[in-house]
């Protein structure tokens, strides 16, 4: 199911599909946690459904049923748990597109996390993107346009999914999951609905836990122990500190912490960097402000 706030975007693509003007390679763009793969899945179902109902797959035809059973012969999916998608995966995916569709009139290759393609993999995909066989769609998702080769990018049609308004996420969490989340918390999860939801799983490390931990920084040795305890979540912590500074009264000290966290977020991306030291540095500043 796609998030309700993306219904208009899907409806627009549905109407183009109906008019046979849908681009053969839609590229769904947005950060992780936004719901890109759900959107791509819904578009795929729509393309394969035998009798879509006002922009939605019917859910009942043979095609829809096979998709639900994950055995649709004309739907192929390339994805990986690894850091990269290699050339072999792409070749296998392309091979499956050969020949005519078995069931629907269309065939779909779904490629999630396109930004993980190696250069060789992306080049292997190029020819198919350039000269697609009839009734073939390649739906790709990626975190950002610049994470893809320009040659790949220019052969796709970008569909950028916008961040939903925090208020919409708040309502959705309440209506669908009976979860109450403040707008401040939602912003701390970058207004990404899946991150907001994940924060409520049993083993989640949350913004609220982090903010609470800040309150005990004044006790001896706690800066170091907190830095060590949270180092695996360094990017979240630094981002949360920015959020925390935004909520604070405007002052030079908070501004200093904000700026430092922006700088440290960049440093934290370097491989081999000592993450607990980064946190130690900034948590000492936080301690000064709080004492
Ligand atoms: Zn259907």
Question: Which key phrases capture this entry?
Answer:
291 residues, alpha/beta, Rossmann fold, five-stranded parallel sheet, 49% helix, 8% strand, binds zinc ion
Q: How many domains comprise the coordinates?
A: 3
Say what the CATH topology of the largest domain is: Rossmann fold
The CATH class assignment of the largest domain is: Alpha Beta
Query: Care to count the β-strands?
Result: 5
CATH superfamily of the largest domain: P-loop containing nucleotide triphosphate hydrolases
Q: How would a textbook summarize the main sheet?
A: 5 strands, parallel
Gross morphology is elongated
CATH architecture term of the largest domain: 3-Layer(aba) Sandwich
Helix content: 40-55%
Mean pLDDT: 93
Structural class: alpha/beta
Strand order of the largest sheet: 2-3-4-1-5
How much of the sequence lies in strands comes to 5-15%
Low-confidence stretches: none
Bound molecules: zinc ion
Number of helices: 14
Instruction: Please give the radius of gyration in angstroms.
Output: 23 Å
**Alpha-carbon distance between the termini?**
48 Å
* N-to-C series of helices and strands: HEHHEHEHEHEHHHHHHHH
């Amino acid at each position: 199911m796609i998030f309700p706030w993306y219904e208009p975007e899907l409806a627009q693509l549905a109407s183009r599909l109906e008019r046979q003007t849908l681009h053969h390679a839609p590229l769904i763009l947005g950060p992780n946690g936004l719901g890109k793969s759900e959107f791509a899945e819904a578009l795929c179902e729509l393309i394969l459904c035998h009798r879509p109902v006002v922009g939605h797959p019917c859910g009942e035809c043979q095609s829809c049923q096979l998709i639900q059973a994950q055995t649709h012969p004309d739907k192929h999916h390339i994805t990986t748990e690894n850091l990269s998608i290699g050339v072999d995966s792409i070749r296998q995916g392309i091979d499956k597109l050969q020949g005519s569709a078995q069931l629907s009139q269309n065939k779909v290759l779904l490629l999630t996390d396109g930004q993980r393609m190696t250069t060789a993999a992306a080049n292997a995909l190029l020819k198919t993107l350039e000269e697609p066989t009839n009734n073939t769609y390649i739906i790709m998702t990626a975190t950002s346009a610049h994470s893809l080769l320009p040659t790949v990018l220019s052969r796709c049609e970008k569909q950028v999914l916008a961040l939903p308004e925090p208020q919409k996420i708040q309502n959705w969490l309440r209506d669908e999951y009976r979860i109450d989340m403040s707008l401040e918390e939602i912003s701390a999860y970058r207004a990404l609905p899946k991150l907001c939801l994940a924060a409520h799983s049993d083993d989640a490390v949350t913004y609220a836990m982090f903010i609470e931990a800040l309150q005990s920084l004044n006790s001896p040795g706690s800066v170091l122990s907190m830095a060590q305890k949270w180092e695996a979540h360094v990017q979240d912590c630094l981002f949360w500190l920015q959020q925390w500074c935004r909520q604070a009264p405007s002052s030079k000290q908070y501004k200093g912490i904000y700026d430092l966290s922006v700088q440290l977020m960049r440093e934290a991306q370097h491989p081999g960097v000592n993450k607990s030291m980064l946190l130690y540095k900034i948590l000492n500043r936080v301690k000064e402000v709080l004492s």
